Amino acid sequence: MRIGEIAALVGVTSRAVRHYHHIGLLPEPSRRANGYRAYTVRDAVLLARIRRLTEIGLSLDEVRDVLADDAGRELAEVLGELDADLARQEREIGERRRVLAALLETPPASDGPLSPALATLLERAPAAGSPAAAKDREHLLLLDAAGGGGGAGSELYAALRPLADDPGVAVLYERLDELAGAPADDPRVPALAADLAAAVPDEVLAVIPEGEPSAAGWGRALLDDYPPAQREVVRRVMEALAVRVRTTRGRTP
After folding, report:
1. Is 147 strand, coil or helix?
2. What is the DSSP code string of 70-123?
3. Are 179 and 193 in contact (CB under 8 A)?
């Protein structure tokens, strides 16, 4: 193969190939009598490996270290790893296309494009004028937009469906709304926090990522969105759920 052919095969530019030669990342192949480089399958495999490593965020120096570790491996082993990686990418693309197809079939929503799983959840949730319920909806929309709509996000939305069907949840939202102007030490806080935590099904806990819920990072941003008494309720709910998660996963609180 010539440089243009190997570049097209791997999906990079000829300029990138020359750059990798220049910095010593991709060894120079042998040359034909006419002076053109003659690339082999192993060169193509190595170039594909470089491309993949840079795509996942490694610097060229880090790529060099990885390739040094690969030097003693058999070609069949490296090819197998590349094939597995391509299969993973194919699955991810297929999942994205399924989500896109579902979005194309769904009328545009005022909230913007939603993942199919979240759209199904919100359709089942009863219409309500509760500010606290509207805030929860906003949080779910943010989670969905941030990439939580696939994989674990879809599992979480599915696990939340029983809550959307439970009329008792509306009563809990009303109690939370009543605390909008109350101080953090309002005597109604502990009982409401306990009732809200108890309402969360075990199925929801099963799909919560390791280390969550937590009052740091995403959890901190969520808490800051509430006034004092409501914030204290949500904080206590997060603590209670974290204990339940650790308990169900065999860890001591």
Report:
1. helix
2. HTTS-HHHHHHHHHHHHHHHHHHHHHHHHHHHHHHHSPPPTT----HHHHHHHH
3. no
C-alpha distances out from residue 95 to 55, 102, 154, 160, 228, Å: 20, 11, 12, 22, 41
Identify the three-state secondary structure at position 60: helix
- Sort 175 into a burial class: Cβ within 10 Å, 0-12 / 13-18 / 19+: middle
Query: Can you tell me the distance from the alpha carbon of 78 to that of 165, in angstroms, rounded to the nearest whole number?
Result: 50
pLDDT of residue 126: 62
Query: Quick one: average pLDDT of 23-45?
Result: 89
CA dist 12 and 90 (Å) reads 19
**pLDDT surpasses 50 at 157:** yes
58, two tokens = 């490694």
- Model pTM above 0.70: no
Cβ atoms of 174 and 130 within 8 Å: the answer is yes
Of 102-106, 179-183, 241-245, which has the strongest mean pLDDT? 179-183
At 107, is the pLDDT very low, low, confident or very high (cuts 50, 70, 90)?
A: low
Q: Of 92-96, 185-189, 218-222, which gets the smallest average pLDDT?
A: 218-222
List the one residue out of 9, 13, 12, 69 whose CA is nearest residue 42: 9
Closest CA to 5 of 52, 55, 44, 35: 44
Q: pLDDT class for 116, splitting at 50, 70, 90?
A: confident
Burial class (CB in 10 A: 0-12, 13-18, 19+), 77: exposed
137 touches 181 (CB < 8 A): no
